[in-house]
Amino acid sequence: MHAVWICLVVFGVSLGDAQTTEWRCGRDLVSVRDTMPNADITLPAWQLLSGLSIHGVDELVDPVAPDVKMRLADVEFVPEYADAALQWMRSGRQAKLEWRKLSDAPDYLGRYSVEIREQGDLAATGLAPVSWAKRLLSAGLVMALPQSGRDVLSLMSAESNAITKHAGLWADTSADRAYLVSAMPGGGSQQNGLMPSVHDAIGRFVVVEGKLRAVEHQEWRSYLNFGAEWHRDFTIALDDELRSFFVGGAIFENALDDWIGRTVRVRGLVQSRGGPYIELANPDWLCLLTE
Fold first, then answer.
1. Nearest one of 220, 194, 228, 219 to 209, comparing CA atoms
2. Phi, psi (5° rounding) for residue 149?
3. CA-CA distance, 277 to 231, in Å (whole number)?
4. pLDDT tens across 108-163, in order?
5. Ordered domains of the chain (ranges, CATH)
6. What is the distance between the alpha carbons of residues 232 and 260, in angstroms, rounded to a whole number?
7. Helix axes 2-11, 82-92, angle to 10 degrees
8. How far is it, in rounded angstroms, from Cα 78 to Cα 14?
9. Which one-letter DSSP state was computed for residue 37?
10. Distance, CA of 46 to chain centre
11. Choice among 56-60, 87-91, 119-123, 182-186 with the minimum mean pLDDT
12. What is the C-alpha to C-alpha distance for residues 12 and 9, in angstroms, rounded to an integer?
């Protein structure tokens, strides 16, 4: 009965509310874009997808090419909601679907990253195609994990909507299982609820939210500090490559000062380096709330 209840909630999710909170992430935080590689690459055309085989949430097969394994790009399935996500996907394959490949090479398990969406006819029905990733994010059945560099703001917006509604995986606020935690030592608050502290999330991959207090620069690395004591409070580390990405050719000593005082969301593995610490792995995994 519990699984059926989850399914009903999932199909009742509206994507129309996904713009309630706006975040700028990765590429959109860079003020000087002329120095950045062009992310607007040409993608393959959409192809019809019928009879999709779903062996698991991370193993999809097109019957036309049974030797090609696929996985949804830019999302990560979490253990507690993998079964509910699998049920959603198996129900969703009854719709008219289309897909396109977002990676030229397979991952270490031989899977290609793909985008799958329901067909839509904006002119005839007023319904635009909606990707499976956005629907799963809006239902709180997956975590956003942008890798392709495409459509990041839309994905994060769908996830933010689920967080605001405490949908799916974002409903759990227990210290040892929550996927959204506060950068503050004593935890923090969000709309209609409390967040446990990042100090309780050592060793786990989570989303951390908090207000940036200071930026410290060293020769090959910069640190985003969320408290007065770096050896006790939460810190995000940017290596030289990521720092160069964000400053966009500006002098790095002053380029990130306008982030101070802003609300930040970052995702990553929380390590213990005196205080809780995330070494940012992908620029799209760091977002600032719009002012």
1. 194
2. 80, 5
3. 10
4. 999 999 999 998 765 556 677 889 999 999 999 999 999 999 899 999 999 999 99
5. 2-164 (2.40.50.90), 172-289 (2.40.50.140)
6. 19
7. 60
8. 22
9. P
10. 23
11. 119-123
12. 5
pLDDT on residue 254:
80
Instruction: Round to whole Å and give the CA distance between 106 and 69.
Output: 9
Would the pTM count as exceeding 0.85?
A: yes
> How long a stretch of residues is the chain?
291
- Between the two ends of the chain, the Cα-to-Cα distance in Å is 43
H or E element at residue 162: helix 152-164
Q: DSSP assignment of 67-102, as one string? A: T-EEEETTEEE-GGGHHHHHHHHHHHTTS-EEEEE-
For 179, the enclosing helix (H) or strand (E) is none
For residues 92 and 117, what is the distance between their CA atoms, to the nearest angstrom?
A: 10
Cβ-contact 136, 142 below 8 angstroms: yes
